Amino acid sequence: MEQRLFIKAIRPADEAKFLCKAINAVGMAETSCRVTVLETLRDYPLEEQIQEAPLSDGTAPAFTEALPGSVALPEGQSLLLRCSLTGEPIPTVEWNKTPGQLRDTVKTTFDGHVAHLELQEAIPEDTGCYRAVARNPVGQASCACQVAVASTGEGPRVMKALKDMDVNAGAGPIKLECVIVGVPEPEVIWYHDGAPVKESDTVRLEFQGDQCTLVLQPVRREDAGQYCCSAVSPRGLCSTECQLRVKATAAPVFLEPLRDVTLPSGTRAELFARVTSDEVPFLAWYKDGRSVSPGADYQITHDGGGVRLVIPEAFVEDDGLYEVEASNSGGRTRSSCRLKVTPPVVDKIVPVTAPDLTVAKPCLVMARSLPPELHVQAGTRVSLCASVAGTSNSLQAKWFRGSGEPIADSPDFRLSKAREMVVPDQGGPLVPATSFTLSIAEAFPEDSGVIWLRVEGPGDTSAASRTHLLVLDEDENREQAAQAARDVK
Q: Fewest C-beta atoms under 10 Å: which of 29, 166, 242, 404?
C-alpha cells in the first residue's frame, strides 16, 4: 500500500516535521521526515534593479561562488560551508540558521573574498537552512544551503544491571559490575547514597569497554548503602542501582582451647589450639604477659585454623603461663594454658628398707585438670573438661560456682561424662580415665568467676579441680574483667 501527502504552493509556514503512522490489529509502524522551505530569490528586471540601486560610489556585494544548495552528512562529522563574493567597499558577512540559532561552537571566517562556516561533530539538531548575508553601503546579497544531519548514534542503555550483594565486613575484593552501551560513548559516574564516588586506598573504579566496575578492598561497615552507576551522553541518559549490605564481623572463637602441658626438661613442647573466624585473624602469643616472637626458641605456625607454638627443647626457664590471642575487626579472644617443665632427675643411692605393709586408703587422682584460667569473648561457646584416672561406674561429678552455687544440667549449661584414654598432666603414656565436661552455650560477663569440679568415688574418695573463667565484653578491658572475676570469687 502506498500513501502520499501533497502540499500545493508550499510556504515557509509549512516548514515542519511530518509523521506517518500505520496501525492495525497486530501493531503499529511509523516513519517521519522534516520539510524545510528554502527562500527563493525573486528575479527583478535589470532596469528595475538599476533604478532602485542607491546612487553611491562602489559596487554592491555579489556572490561569485554561492553555497551549495544542500549538504547531507552523518552525525559526528564536521560541517564546512564556503562561498566567495565581491563588493566595493569590502562587505561584511553574517551567518544565520533557520529554524533555531547557530551553536556557540560554530566558527566563521571571512578574508574579504572567501567566507567559511565550520562546525565540529555535527548533531541532528544542527539540521536547517544556513544563510550567508553580505552587506556594504551600496547594497546586500545572500545565498543559502540546506543542511541535513542524519542520526547515527543511540542513547545510553543498560545491558547488564547491578545486583544487590550481602558481604561480611573485612571481605574483599568485592566488585559491583554493570554493562552500559551507547553511541557516542557516554560519561559514567558512580554514586554512593547520592554522593559521587571518589577513588581511594580502598575504592577503585575500572572501565573496560562497555563494562563498568567498582572495586572495594576491603569492605568496611561504612561502605554499606545504595550504589548507582549513571551514564549520560548527548543522546540521553540511563542508570542502574543496587544495595550493598555489610554484615558485622564476629570475634574469633576457639573451637579447641590450649591445654596444660607438663614435661621433663630438655624435651620438645607443643602448644596447640584451633580457632575459627569470619575473616583471617591476627594471632599473637604471650608468655607470662610478654609478647612471644618466632625464632630459634619459638616456632609459631598457623595452618587451616590450627595455631601452634613449638619449643624444640624446653627447659625450666620456659615454665609459665602461655596465651594466644586471635583478633579481627569484630573483636578479640584469648586462650591460655600452663606449661610446667620438671627439672632433670639426679640418680642417688636409695637405702633398702623393709616394705610397708600398711594398706593405703584409696583416693581419686586427677589425670587431667581444668585450665588455671580461661579468657573468652562475650557470646562465645565455652567447654570445660577434666578427667579422673579410672573408669569406675560409681564416679559422680558435681559442678559449682565460686560461691558454692551448684550448676545443674540445663540447655544453657550442659553436663556430660565419657570414658576415654588421656595423656596425664604429668605426661607419660595414655591412661584410662573418666572425663567430665561442662559446656556453656553462650558465655556472658556475669559468668566470670571460679568454677569448681568435684568428683566423688567409692569409699568417700574424691578429687577436685577449678578454673578462673574470664568473659570479656567488647567495651570492657582485660583488667576490668579480671577484677570482676576476683570479686565473684
A: 404
